Each structure stands twice: as structure tokens, then as C-alpha cells.
Amino acid sequence: MSTNRKCRALRLAVAQQWLLAILLLACAIDARITAAAEEAYSEDAVKAAFLYRFAGYVTWPPQALHAPFSIAVLDDDAVAAELEHALAGRTINELPAQVRRIRNVHALGDAQVLYIGPGLSTAQLQAVLDEVAGRPILVVTDTPDGLNAGSIVNFMLVDRRVRFEVSLPAAERAGLKIGSGLLSVAARVQGHYRGSDTSCVPARDPQTEKRCIVRVAAL
Description:
Layout: H1 3-29, H2 35-38, H3 43-54, E1 58-59, E2 69-74, H4 77-87, E3 91-92, E4 95-102, E5 113-116, H5 122-132, E6 138-141, H6 146-149, E7 153-158, E8 161-167, H7 168-173, E9 177-178, H8 180-183, E10 188-190
Parallel strand pairs: 2-4, 2-5, 5-6, 6-7, 8-10
Antiparallel strand pairs: 1-9, 3-4, 7-8
Helix pairs in contact: 1-3, 3-4
């Protein structure tokens, strides 16, 4: 393939990834969003939009899907308020959706999604993640070390824009399957599903670490 063709193919791939990311946001907040327009939305609103859309790309075990579909928010009232606005009158997985503001993990109940705000200490975050380990809950964090602590999705800033990274091993431990549509717009994907042919393996394995391709999307 010529250099020009390779460049065109690369530009097309980048454009497709950026378009999909924008569509995720557009579906969540019912607006036509361009790269410039996205900056007009607060960071909290963007996170709320992503939390709403994440659920549409995750497969839960049947016993975990019951009404109402609940997104629990721990220690982040601003995101909870934005999410309440985004979910008003909406459904997730054909179930009525609701936001549940909680002050501790014991109030989590049977929520399918748990978002943990950035205000918790490292020890507090780890205690929450240990408490929900193994349960079919999509755990989303907002801290630089979120995936290493055990969360499934973690928010991050890339070029001052809200993006997210995903841990496939953590999702598998929770009995959840993350759809390829979501993985394709993640800024980083950690690990792989057992038995899959994905090219990225857990970085903790020193024998295969060099084979792990950490995909940073050009968004």
C-alpha cells in the first residue's frame, strides 16, 4: 500500500472513531454536537451523558436486569444532578431508568451501575471496590488509578476532554460483557477476555507485556 493510501486510511479510521464518540454524546443529550460545541458542556454533563450511554453497550446476566434500572452515584452530587436531567423519562435496556444518590456503598442496593466520584481517598475507594467485587455491577470511577484499584470503567482527561478507559478483566470478574462499540471509542483498553483473540494482555504478566497494545484513540 502506498504512503498516501496509508495516510488516507489512517485519517478515515481516526475520523470514524471521533464521529462515534460524538454520536455517543449526541444521543445522550439530544443535541447536534461538534468538537467545538462539546466544549460548551460542563465536565459533569459530559460524564453524565457517558454514564447513560455506557449501559447500552454492556451485557448483564439476566438476573441483574430488573426494574428500575438504577445508576447509583456515590459522592458526586453535580454528576448526579446532570444524570437526573439526562434520564428524565428515559429507559435503559427497555427498563425505566433512575438515579440513586448514595452516601455509602451499603445503600447501593440492586443498582446495575455505580459511579464513584473523585473525592474519595485511596483507602475509601479500595474499600468500596472490595465491597462490590464479583457483583454484576458496572463500576465507573474518576481517579488516575481507578482501573488498577479494580473498577471496570474509569474517566480520564485527554487534551482537556472527558474520555474513558476500560478494564476487560474487571468486567469479566463482574460477569459483564463490554460491547465492541464502546471499546472502539475508549481511550485505553486494559487486558482481554479469556479465550479471546484480542491483542492486549494484562500488563501484570511480564512474559507477555510487550505484546500488550495499549490503544490511545486519536480523539
